[in-house]
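Moderator note: this is an archived Q&A kept for reference. The question asked for a predicted structure of one protein chain; the sequence and the answer are reproduced below.
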Amino acid sequence: MAALVLVFSPLPRLRGLIQRCWGLLERGLLPGFSGGQSPPWGPALAVQAPAFLPQPVNDTSEGNEAPHLLDSILWMAAPKKRRTIEVNRCRRRNANKLIKVKRNIDVCPECGNLKQKHVLCGYCYAKVKAETRLIRMEIGKKEGGPFNAPTVETVVLYDGEKPTEKDEGKRIIERARKRPSWFVQN
């Protein structure tokens, strides 16, 4: 036996729409439960929210036609059969989804650590960062602040190096150590 539950809405239009939809459901579904033929069941469907319920149009030419129940339904795909665990595992463990073996591994000529070809070695990069930080600290000491930087090019000279003719008019930073092999002089 079916029970009728009515929810009264403060909006009369929405209340009328819900009553019409309930009437369509009663006429379509309840005769099948009372001993007659059962209605053919359709695919799964989902109703999102009352915001998707259609508003009645204030058109006077077709005033007798009410919005249909299926106008407010968002149809979604539903699988016909459950996927087996074997199929799921084969899909998840596909060879294309596994981690690829890298074949472009090489030895760094400077430090001897492993690195990818055409990629800077991580260990050497850490050394370059440390040296650059020290150079920037010396530049900061010489200038006295970030806003006092001259608008000329900077040249870094290590022990035993002298400025060339190209270095005239450039800012010269001197480092009291031997030039690293990876820090080439231009």
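Archived answer notes: Residues 86 and 132 are 55 Å apart (CA to CA).
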